Amino acid sequence: MSYLDNIRTFVRVYELGSMSAAGRDLRISPAVTSSRISQLEDHLSVRLFQRTTRSLTPTEQGKAFYSGACEILESVDNAEAQVVSITDNPKGALFVAAPLGVGRRLIAPQVPAFLKAYPEVSVRLRLTDRKVDLTTEGLDLAFFLGQPEDSNLRIRKIADVERVLCAAPDYIATRGNPVSGEALVSDRHECLNLRFPGAPEFQWRLMTPEGPKRFAVTGRYESDDGDVLIDWALAGQGIVLKPIFEVADHLRAGRLVPVATATPPEPIQMACLFTHRKRQDPKTRLFMDFVIDRISKDVRDSGML
């Protein structure tokens, strides 16, 4: 398997553009990463990367080898997947991404039961509210809220999730309860916004009598962590837009109160992204089926939709 390991290492170095990043992704040391690339170069009698102290760039030979290397790995993965599907004994690491709220409240609670059912599988769950790239980040699948931007990926819809605009009673006592999106803008309410590199401008898409409309809200608070926004809302610092399942307990307890109810947010799609190749991996398919079935039940049973 050493030659295949070298090829896998090369692919990740090529995709991530860094020996250290590839090493972290593969959970091997930088020295091992460098050694595998050197072994591969010796075997091929070519230089695959131009290295300097500050950069690593693929050579023409490296660019040519990358395409074939991906095909080799895909063929091996598909062959292994066929064997596993026959023996019904999935194994190996599964790399999964999800938004913070979805991951903490819906995905993570399902992992122990899945691993108990499939003891030779390990799950590496990455939680982030930024958009992820399945290919460059080495992910098998990614749960998300909204619409995907990459049309080359497969999508499996889970549900349309209801959302709510809400604030703490202290905020409402100080600033009032806006009745609509127009009031959010005209009265310059403190809107708590999710912001990460590459995020669009702050606009909340709300339902009006004339149909969906975007409102350019403003606010001094922003974070790349959705749970931080909820904490700020609970502290009376502003209005937050969230899927109901993320704030349901606070709404039931009265810690947060719906606002601008005349123009509620549009529901948002919850779905799972995966590549054509990864769908053939039994453990990827099994994890999707296992988690999605339980998420749908959790959402229905909790009256979240």
UniProtKB/TrEMBL annotation:
GO terms for molecular function: DNA binding; DNA-binding transcription factor activity. This is LysR family transcriptional regulator. It comes from the Bacteria. Belongs to the LysR transcriptional regulatory family. Keywords: DNA-binding, Transcription, Transcription regulation. InterPro entries: LysR-type_TF_proteobact-type, LysR_HTH_N, LysR_subst-bd, WH-like_DNA-bd_sf, WH_DNA-bd_sf. SUPFAM superfamilies: Periplasmic binding protein-like II, Winged helix' DNA-binding domain. Residues 1-59 form the HTH lysR-type domain. The keyword Secreted does not apply. Pfam families: HTH_1, LysR_substrate.
